[in-house]
Amino acid sequence: MPYPPQLEELIKAVEKTRVERVERKKAGKEVPFLSLDERKVMLNHHPDFKEEGRRELKVGPSKGYKIAHEMADLIEAKSRVDPDSIDLSNPDIDTDVLILGAGGAGTSAALLAQEAGAKVTMVTKLRHGDANTMMAEGGIQSATKGEKDSPYYHYLDVMGGGHFTNVPELVEALVTHAPSALHWMENLGVNFSKFPDGRMKSIHGGGTSRKRMHYAADITGAEIMRVLRDEARNRKGIDIVEFSPAVELILNEHGHCAGAVLYNMETEEYVVAKAKAVVMSTGGSGRLHIQGFMTTNHYGATADGIVIAYRAGLQISFLHTVQYHPTGIVFPEQAEGILITEKFRGSGANLVNIDGEQFVNEREPRDVEAAAIVQECTVRSKGVPTPTGKAGIWLDSPMIEMLAGEGTVKREFPGKFILYKRFGIDISKQPMLIYPTLHYQNGGINFDPEGVTTIPGLFAAGEVAGGIHGENRLMGNSLLDIVVFGRIAGKSAADYVANGAKAGALTLEHVRKYNQEMADSGADQGRVSPMLLPDYTNPKVRERQLTSQYVGTIR
Ligand SMILES: Cc1cc2nc3c(=O)[nH]c(=O)nc-3n(C[C@H](O)[C@H](O)[C@H](O)COP(=O)(O)OP(=O)(O)OC[C@H]3O[C@@H](n4cnc5c(N)ncnc54)[C@H](O)[C@@H]3O)c2cc1C
Q1: Predicted local confidence at residue 60, as pLDDT
Q2: Residue 552: its pLDDT value, please?
Q3: With a 6 A CB cut-off, is 300 part of the ligand 1 pocket?
Q4: What's the gap in Å between 242 CA and the centre of ligand 1?
Q5: Ligand 1 pocket member 304 (CB < 6 A)
Q6: Which residues participate in catalysis according to the annotation?
Q7: 282 lines ligand 1 (CB under 6 A)
Q8: How far is Cα 530 from Cα 532, in angstroms, rounded to an integer?
Q9: Pick from 437, 402, 413, 534: which is nearest to 137 by CA?
Q10: Of the chain's two ends, which shows fewer C-beta atoms within 10 Å, N or C?
Q11: What distance in angstroms lies between residue 31's CA and the mean position of ligand 1's atoms?
Q12: Given this model, what pLDDT does residue 205 score?
């Protein structure tokens, strides 16, 4: 659907101010960045700052911690499985390193664990690569350009973006391993965008002090996943099991992690996977639609790893903040929630209100930028009304053509160019209508720079883990963290196995205990988790379905 006449009319206000805004940019006379104090005030408009959006957990190792209701609902829920009905004595899978989740973190871990000599089994919820990693667009940060940048500046940017709440040791590991992680991917065959002389292209992202965002057009994640997946599937010693999400961790009698209960989505059977070490890499939770926000995330992003690791006794942190990407498509509605990469803003596109005014510098950190858009649409009523009663802000992509030459949008943003073309909209000539969209989890389970958790034998990497980005992640640092810490966790897990993981009888006693704690605390509301898949069933249809109990879409 192209823009209807009423939106075409409103676009004229954007066109009216465009030349002047481009000239301003060329002359370096940008809308100034907010001061630290102004940012603090602006953040009051961010959904994280709505006190009523969170509640204290009543059970588990982080009892008393306040997180979003939607996440708390899953944590304060009973297991999908009855521990008494699972036979742990005769495992269906027996492996050295069991990897839960086959996105970028899991697949990187699988490769390094295999290289270190371990027998690897990687299980995943949907197909290999149905993951947030596949959808990443804008780029990956790394201080590869020695003359102007270094891990030192990268460190400061990551800490600043996270409001200096980040775990410093994790940030140090992230930035110092970044150049070698990029080098590793390039050697495996990832085609990063380059200049004719072979140097990698790099641009700014929100909150970066240097141009260190490397990319593969606007399909960086798909390109990385293509290569990692090919590599994993072509190596001997890595078994990949699809459509089999983990629904519970298995411990052994010593309290060490020793496998997982899986759910075969095709046969609806439960499967016992025994392992000497487990890597948790199940990704994020956008499909919880916290505070009703639309999301950029893939269909299986439902916080399962957090839920089951928490039940097994692992603490969580930084889940009190959630990242809303400032620019998600709000119209055309069929594409609602889909991410418009920050690279558009990094390439110069302004954010413009209904009057054609630029109201914020487009390179503020994500939380500040999202808060500014929410403020503009709600408090200042300067949003652009969509045909279905929502509000959005213009992202002025045609500016990029004026700044960098005709054809740039199509060349640098082929994914989005084609998507909009399907609706009859040419984004090299018309702006895009956006609103913040639930994007990234920020926090998760606790782990250390070696990928080690407090449960022996359980390692973690990727979006499921918390601490690296503190209370706010900057663009391009997640693709980086999943490769850096995926590699580290895979190697650590294999080394742990090689050094003699302590064997013992398998048990789900922790699940029984957790259920009891729930009952004692009064938190038991009859909910069951993990969710596995979100439920978008129309309530009217649901009423006529005779299934006795649903969890997400699954019985
Ligand atoms: C649209 C979009 C654009 C992005 N763009 C960028 C970008 O440009 N730069 C950047 O740095 N970051 C970006 N990000 C963030 C980044 O892509 C993700 O944070 C990162 O890829 C997560 O990797 P992961 O391996 O931890 O999780 P994922 O890639 O999501 O992989 C997790 C895997 O675990 C599986 N899984 C889930 N539950 C279970 C279970 N119970 N059992 C077994 N398997 C399970 C999932 O199905 C999935 O396959 C973007 C994210 C999105 C959604």
Answers
A1: 97
A2: 53
A3: yes
A4: 16
A5: yes
A6: 325, 345
A7: yes
A8: 6
A9: 413
A10: C
A11: 33
A12: 79
